[in-house]
Amino acid sequence: MNQRSAAWLLLLASAVLEAVWATALGLSYGFTRPVPTLVFGVTAALSMIGLGLAIRSIPLGTAYAVWVGIGAALTVGWAMATGVEPFSGLKVLFIAGIVACAAGLKALPAGAPGPDSPASGTVPVRPERLSSAGSPRQPGTG
Question: What whole-number distance in Å separates Cα of residue 40 and Cα of residue 42?
Fold first, then answer.
């Protein structure tokens, strides 16, 4: 398995954990129930760690959109399956749309990082911020 595939699997697992912590958050009744509160804390931390690790190989915007979309879809699906939320065909249709969009983001070809991306190790400097010598100017110095 290559690094990019592993990152996508990690992202998917993190999205599942997002659904778990969101559900536990609702069950904690404002952090007054210890077990759901503990489940919330552990799964929220693991979910964030997984997202943070996944963005080493997946662009942040794409990873975040997939993480939120899949997590939200699973949360709503679980709520409908358990009767917490009423079942609705339109909800299922729109949730399927979210999942389809996440799958579409995954299906896009991986692009190489550009020269101004954080992955390249360079920090972009706007041309208007350079002095005639080519070094960055300090604000207000000319």
Answer: 6
